[in-house]
Amino acid sequence: MPEPTAPDRVPVHKTYKLFVGGRFPRSESGRTYQAQGANVPLASRKDLRDAVAAARAAQPGWAGATAYLRGQILYRAAEMLEGRRGELTALGVRDAEVEQAVDRWIWYAGWADKIAQVAGGANPVAGPYLNVSTPEPTGVVGVVAPAGTPLLGLVSVIAPAIVGGNTVVALVDEAAPLPAITLGETLATSDLPPGVVNLLTGRAAETAPWLAAHRDVNGLDLAGADPDQAVAWERAAADNLKRVLRPERAPVDWTADPGPRRMLAWLETKTVWHPRGL
Amino acid sequence: MFEYAPAPESTAIVDLRPSYGLFVDGRFVPPAGGRGRDTVNPATEQVLAEVAEADEDDVDAAVAAARRAYETAWGPMPGRERAKHLFRLARIIAERGRELAVLESLDNGKPIREARDVDIPLASAHFFYYAGWADKLGYAGYGPRPQPVGVAGQIIPWNFPLLMLAWKIAPALACGNTVVLKPAETTPLTALLFAEICQQAELPAGVVNIVTGDGATGAALVRHRGVDKIAFTGSTKVGKEIARTVAGTGARLSLELGGKAANIVFDDAPIDQAVEGIVDGIFFNQGQVCCAGSRLLVQESIADELLESLKRRVARLRVGDPLDKNTDIGAINSAAQLARVRELSAAGDAEGAHAWSPPCELPERGFWFPPTIFTGVSPAHRIAREEIFGPVLSVLTFRTPDEAIAKANNTTYGLSAGVWTEKGSRILAVAEKLRAGVVWANTFNVFDPASPFGGYKESGYGREGGRHGLEAYLA
Amino acid sequence: MTGLAEVTGSERALRTFLHGLPGVDRVGLERRAAMLATRSIKASAKAYAIDLAIRMIDLTTLEGSDTPGRVRSLCAKARRPDPADPSCPAVAAVCVYPSMAPVAAGELHGSGVRLASVATAFPSGQAPLAVKLAEVRAAVAAGAEEIDMVISRGEFLAGRYGAVHEEIVAVKQACGDAHLKVILETGELGGYDNVRRASWLAMLAGADFVKTSTGKIPIAATPPVTLLMLEAVRDFLAGTGRQVGVKPAGGIRSSKDAIRYLVLVNETAGPGWLSPQWFRFGASSLLNDLLRQRTKLTTGAYAGPDDVTVD
C-alpha cells in the first residue's frame, strides 16, 4: 500500500461574496453560481435594492468630502491594487491589464481636484452679477460593467463615476467575477467610505432591469450591456430621467486614453448667480 | 388720482399674412396634407393667422432638406463663415426687435414690456454669443477637432417662443449642425418670422427648417430615423416619452423640462429686494416659466411681515392688455393652459390651502388668471408638488437652514432655486446643497447667453447656454 | 414695531436697531428702479402728473450770490409759474438761505406758497450745535415755515448715531411749528444700507421729511435712493402710525425725470404720498421744463426757451 501523500497543510480557500456598503455579504437569496472555478453569489433584485440603498446613504458624505481627499483615497486604492498583483494574475488577469488598471486609477485620482476647474468656472454675463458654474455629482450611478476585461473594464467605469463624488452600484462581468471581488477587497482597505462602490456578481440580465428602473438611481452606464438588450433598460431608465451612457456598437479598446467623457457624464452643471454691489 | 392712461404699443409694425406654410429648404411651402390650424391672440381670442400643420411627409421633407444642407453647404462651411451668418441673424433680430416683440406679445399673450426688454434682446444676444463660438470649437474643451452631430430635431415650448428658438438653433448652427425646428402649436408666429429673417440673412437653404404643428408633428420628428439629435424643451411627461422613443435609436438627446423651484427667504434677507425677487420669480411671464420660483419657502420668524409686504406689492401689479407698455401680467397662453391652472388652483382650495388674489378686473375675452398666493400650504399638497405653470405661488415656512434645504430638495424636479440672505457663508452653503441646475442668490430669473441653464433629476439633462451648451451639439 | 421709544434710549440700543434693519441689495434695488422707469405715462395722466409735480416743487436758490432781487423774482415765479396761464398751479415752497428768509417771507405772504429755509450750517453741517440752533431759530423767526437741516455725516459715519439723533431732536425743538426736513446727503453715506439707517434715524428723531441731498455735491438724488427712502417712510408709517414725507433734491431737471419719480412714489409708498404735503422736489430748472411740457400738452406744439421765464 502506498503511503498516503497528505499535504503538510490544507490551504484555506476564499469564499467569494458580494461587496455592499463596505461589507461582504452573501446573496440574500442564498444562491450561487459557478464561475472561474468558484461558487460566486448570484445577486438578486433584493441585493440590488440593498446596494442602491448603501450607495445612496454614502453619496452625500462622499460628495461632501474635499476633492483633495477623494483624490488621496483613490490614489490609496491604486496602491492597494498594486499590492494585489499576484492574486489578480492568479485569477487569470493578464499582468498588463493589472498594470493598466492601476494606472487608470491613478489617472482618475489625479482628476479629483482638477475636473471642476476644467468643467466649470466663471461665466462673463452681461450684468452686475457673479456667475459661476460648478460640476456636481449626479448621485447614484448604476453600472453594467464591461465583459472581457474584468479588471480594467470595471475600473474604467467605476473610477470616473466616483472621482466626481458619485457612488456606484456595479453589476460585474458575469463570466469573470473574481477579479471584481478582489477589487472590492482592495477598496475596503483603502479608506474609501463604505457604500461608495458596491459590486454585485451574478447575471446582469436578471438584475439590470431593476437597476434601470430603480427611481433612486440617477445615472446608468450600460457599457457592458448587449446593445439590443440595452434598449429596454434605456427605456426603463427614462422613467426618472436617468442620465444614460449607451453601450458602444463597436468593440471598445479599454486601454485607450479615456478622456474626460465618462466623468462628465456623471456631473451636473450647477450655475450660481449673485449680484455684485457695494 | 394718478392713474396711468393706457399706453398701447401699435401693432401696425406687424405685417401678418392670413396663412403661413412650412419653411422647408429655404422656402415657404404648403403642407402635404393641406391642413392648417388657427393661432389666436390669447388676450382676445381673435384669430391671428392660419398656420400649416406638418405631417410625417412634411417632416420627412424637412429632415431631407436639413440633411442635404448639412452635407453640401453647412457641414463643409468653415466655422468662420458660419459665424458670420449667425452674427447676421443676431443683428437682424435686433433690427426687427420691435416687430418681433409685438408679434410675440400678440401670439403668446405676454406683456410687451417683457417681450421688448427680455425675450427679443436675449434671443439676439444668444445668436451673437454662439456666433463667436463657430470658429473656436476646438478650444471649447470637447477635443481638438469636435464634429457636428448632424441633423438636429428641435421642439420648443410656447412660453418664450423666439427665445427658446434661439437657445436651440444658435448653438446647433454654431457647431455645424442643421436643424428642423417645431415651434409650439399655439405660438408659431415668431418662428415663422424668424424663417423670413433666415431668408433675409441669406442663410443657405435647408440649414434651418421650421415645421409647425401640434404634438403629432413633434412625435413624427422624434421618431424620424434621419435625425441625429433631439433637443426638447417642455413638460417632464413628454420628455420621458421622448426619452423612451429615442432609446436604442442612437440619436442624441437633451431635455429641458419642468420645475417646482423653491425660493428660500431667510430672516436676514434684503426684504424689499426679496419681495421683488419673489414677484419676478412667480409672476414673470404669468408664471409660465419652467424655472419659476413657484414655492416660496420663508423663515417662520418673518413670514407674516414678508407676506404682508408681498401682498401689498402684488396688489400693485397691473393685469391686462399685454400690448399696454405698463402691463405687468398678461394673458395665459391658451384655454388648455388656463384650464390646467384653474384645476390646480382648485385643488389647492380643496386641500385646505388659503388662496389670496388682489382685487383686479380681468378682461372678459381671452384667457386670464389673477396673480394668486396660496398660504397654509403643506409639502403634501398638489400645489406644492406639481408644476402649475401659471401665476400661482405656494407659500411654505421653515425654521432652520437644514429644514429649508430639505424642503427645497423634496421634489422630483431640480431646475432652479433661489436663496435670499445677507450672510455670505450661508449663501454658499445653501447654494451648494440645493439640487438644482441654476441657483439665484439674492436675485431671481436673470438669464444670459453665457450662463449654462438646465436641470437636475427630472428637470432633464444637458445644458443650454455658455460653453456647456455646445456639448449637446458636438460629437 | 413696538418699543420704538426704547431704541433711541441708548447709543447701543440705537445701533442695534439701525443695524437690524433689513439690508439693501444694490443690484435688486437699482433693477426695480430701472423697471419702474419704463412706465409709460401718457395723455391725461401726464397732464395730471405735470401739474402735480409743479405743486410739489421747492423752488430753490442756494447760492452765495443770492440777492434780494433774485429772491424776489424767484418768489414771483413760485406764485405764478406761467404768467400767461392762470390755470397753472403755484409751486409748494421757495427754499432759500436764512439770510434771504425775511425777503422771501415778505414776497410770499398770503400766497399759499410756503417759505423753506436751509439751516444748521448748510451744506456741510460743520458748526457747533449752538450755532446751528441759533440759525434755525433765526430762520423761523424770519418767517420760515419749513427748515431743511443737514445731518452731521461725519458723526453718522463715525457710528455716533446717538449724537446725530440728539442733534435732530434739538433742531426739531428749535423749529417750533415749522416743519423739519432732514437732509441725509445720501451721496456721502457710502451705500444704500446707510441710507436706510439714516432715514430711520431721522424719522425716529422727529423728522417731518427725509431729503436726499444738499445739491452741493456731485451725487444728488437718484431714483434708486429715492425708492429706498420711500420704502423707509412706508415702513415707518406701518410701524409707528406716523407719516413722513420724502424730498429728492438735486439733479432732477426734466419733466420725464419728475414723472418717473412720481411713478416711484405711486408704486412704492403709494398714492397716500402723492401730494405736496408728503412729496417734494428740491429743484430749480425743473420748473421750466415742466412748464414747457405743460404748454406742449395744451397747445400741441413744442415750446421754445423764451416761452418760459429765465428765473
From TrEMBL, chain A:
SUPFAM superfamilies cross-referenced by the UniProt entry: ALDH-like
Keywords: Oxidoreductase
Superkingdom as given in the UniProt entry: Bacteria
Classification via Gene3D superfamilies: Aldehyde Dehydrogenase, Chain A, domain 1 (3.40.605.10)
InterPro entries in the cross-refs: Ald_DH/histidinol_DH, Ald_DH_N, Aldehyde_DH_dom
Keyword Endoplasmic reticulum: no
Protein name, as recorded: Aldehyde dehydrogenase family protein
TrEMBL record, chain B:
InterPro entries per record: Ald_DH/histidinol_DH, Ald_DH_C, Ald_DH_CS_CYS, Ald_DH_CS_GLU, Ald_DH_N, Aldehyde_DH_dom
Keywords: Oxidoreductase
Domain of life, source organism: Bacteria
Keyword hit for Nucleus: no
Sequence intervals crossing the membrane: none
Sequence ranges assigned to domain Aldehyde dehydrogenase in this UniProt record: 33-474
Active site positions, chain numbering: E256
Family designation: Belongs to the aldehyde dehydrogenase family.
Name of the protein described by the UniProt record: Aldehyde dehydrogenase family protein
Source organism of this protein record: Pilimelia columellifera subsp. columellifera
TrEMBL record, chain C:
Keywords: Lyase, Schiff base
InterPro entries in the record: Aldolase_TIM (IPR013785), DeoC (IPR011343), DeoC/FbaB/LacD_aldolase (IPR002915)
Annotated EC: 4.1.2.4
Enzymatic class: lyase
Reactions catalysed: 2-deoxy-D-ribose 5-phosphate = D-glyceraldehyde 3-phosphate + acetaldehyde
Pathway: Carbohydrate degradation; 2-deoxy-D-ribose 1-phosphate degradation; D-glyceraldehyde 3-phosphate and acetaldehyde from 2-deoxy-alpha-D-ribose 1-phosphate: step 2/2
SMART domains named in the record: DeoC (SM01133)
Domain of life: Bacteria
CDD domains linked to this entry: DeoC (cd00959)
Database matches in Pfam families: DeoC
Family: Belongs to the DeoC/FbaB aldolase family. DeoC type 2 subfamily.
Protein name, per record: Deoxyribose-phosphate aldolase
Species for this entry: Pilimelia columellifera subsp. columellifera
Gene name linked to the record: deoC
